[in-house]
Amino acid sequence: MPRPRLYPSSAARQQAFRDRKRRAAVAPHVRCRQLGPHCTVYCSDWQTVYPLLPSQAAVVTDPPYRTSYDYTKARRRPSRWDRNYVGTDQPFDPTPWLQFPEVILFGANHYWQALPQGGSWCCWHKTPGRQSADFAPYEWIWLSQAGPPHYLPYLWAGGMREGEENYTCLPQKLHPAQKPVKLLQFLVQQTTAPVVIDPYMGSGTTLAACVRLRRPCIGIELDPAYFAVACDRLQQEVEALGLFA
Questions:
Q1: What's the pTM value of the predicted model, to 2 decimals?
Q2: Which of 57, 121, 162, 216 could form a disulfide with 155 if both were Cys (CB 3.0 to 4.6 A apart)?
Q3: Span 30-66+81-240: which CATH code?
Q4: What is the pLDDT of residues 7-21, one digit of tens each?
């Protein structure tokens, strides 16, 4: 006896239609990929894609901002990076992202004057129990939603990394400013919006956290090389969970 054919629900069909419409609406030169059922990524500047983003979304991102840190500088070992990523020589303006109902921004101590009053803070201790050397021992993360402060100790200093990104599992980071998936999973879980947006996705860590949490997500990355890295990584995440578009 043949198996009964299973049809997607009405809500799933409507979401698929919206996804196709959104992908078709971008300029022809913008590369767009759908990875799994709920992960859409664009290789573009964020300004091109911004008009298409859903207004009821959570923005969770590590934006580029002006810094004196040089990722190409050799320290205890030669750097694998031949250039700093785009935006490290420019101040960051959070204004376009403050229009969304939920916002989480890494490195917010570098541009706190541009943030509105209120919200809450998360202190990521990157060198717990160790000397910080030339690595910043803390990173401050701003959450637009009010709440108690969070303190998150999680080792992340060069080749000394905790968890699944430990040096034995990940000898080289995928992006100079890569963040741990476990940390992003915690932050994504602080949001309730129906979709999560990372407009500076880099190697795709925020979206990897979303895929694991089954949260619909949209990523934007300007650099084609990092976009390719993120796509490969997210495809592996999708396949590991048995998710298909």
A1: 0.86
A2: 162
A3: 3.40.50.150
A4: 455 666 666 666 555
